[in-house]
Structure formats: C-alpha cells, structure tokens
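hey so i finally got around to running the thing on that chain from the lab meeting. sorry it took forever, my laptop kept dying and i had to restart like 3 times. anyway pasting the input first so we r on the same page abt which one it is
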Amino acid sequence: MVVVVVAAFTHGTMGFGFPLISTPMIAMATDIRTAILATLVPNLAVNLISIFRGGHWTASVARHWPVAVFVLIGAVIGTRVLILGDPEPLKLLLSAMIVVFLLQGRLRGIDGWSWLPRHPRASGVAFGLLGGFLSGTVNVAVPPLVIYFMALGLDALAMTQVLNLCFIVGRLTQAATLHAAGQLGSAAVVATTPLTVVSLAALWIGLRVQRRIRPAAFQRILRLALWIMAAILAGQAALHFAR
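ok and heres what got predicted. didnt touch it at all, straight out
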C-alpha cells in the first residue's frame, strides 16, 4: 500500500514515474513478475488520468501515435519473455534501466542522437520497439522514450501526454498477453482494486501540491532512492547468478 502511494504521488508531481518506483520497490521483496501483476491495474488507472491532463491531448496523440503501435509490438515480445523466462535475472535489466534513467541527462547530451529528428520514422520504430520490450519485461519504458521525444523537441506537456499514451498501450498489451497465458484473471483485478483507489487518491494529492513543493529537493531524494534500489536489484541478480 505504501509503495503505490509513494509511486502515485511522485507520478502526480512529475507527470510520470509510477512503474519506475513501484516495480523495483516490490521486486526487491518478491520478483519482477509479481511486481508487475500487483501494480498492473493501478498503473493503467494512473496513466489514463495523466494522458488527459492539461488539455490538447488529441493533437499530441494524433502526431505521435505510430510510436505507440511499435510499443505494442515490443510489449508483446517483452511480456512473452517475462512469462517464459526466469524473472530473477530481469532484476539486472531493471537495475540497468534505472541507472539509464538517472543518467539520461548526460546521455541526451551525446552527439549521436542528432540522427533521431532527421529520421523520425525509423527512430520511432526502433525506440518504440525497445520501449515496448522494456515495458513488457521490467515495466520501465521511460529511458528510451524520453530520449526519443526530447530529441524531437516536444514540450513538457506534450511529452508527458505521449509518454502516458505509450505507457497505457504497453500496460494494456501486457495485461492481454498475461491474461492469454492464464496469469492474469478477474480475481487478480479485484484483489488490486483497493490499490487502484489508493493510487488515484495519491495521484490527485501529487497533482494538487505539484506547484507547492521544491522540485530540486524532491528530485534529489528520489534520485538517491532510485540509486539505492538499482544497487539492491543488481546485487540480488548477482547473487542469483552466483548460485
């Protein structure tokens, strides 16, 4: 319960971040597959609210919806990997994605990204597939998609809306694939309903206090927590491989 409150509140203040926080926090105590199943419905609800926030969302979606199509394809592949593979080694991938997220400011400064706006369709395919695969396997599609959309020059509101569209597509695809494999039923949805209600309440509070908090101080605390989680997940994966 505390995990989804923290994750949803952070999502409300930053515009994204629910899976980036909730998935590793739960995965440290269980495994990634359990973390994804536990937060799937709350994740969908939070993303759905976020995509409509701010208005003019149809313009953002109309321009960049093809990326979401490739996110769908990548999510099918990634979720199949999650279902069929050993979930424990995926902690290392999740840890790596957290580190990439934390270092994305430096990564965006690399000159090699200049080809993205020159070839938006090809790069949209590549980054959409990668984002979808990561969404399906470790529930974190933020790093590659943020790099892609920032290279295209999207403003903060449009990027938040398009990111949440991609997240919704990834979550719905993930849910459909898990359901088809018999790993997600109505009982699981009902069981996570209280978490969904709590998540939406925390999201609303985060949206309300967004302008009242000090972003720099909040982000420093968040980054420290993410570094710690990345280290713990990497350590757990290393112990798994050492056995």
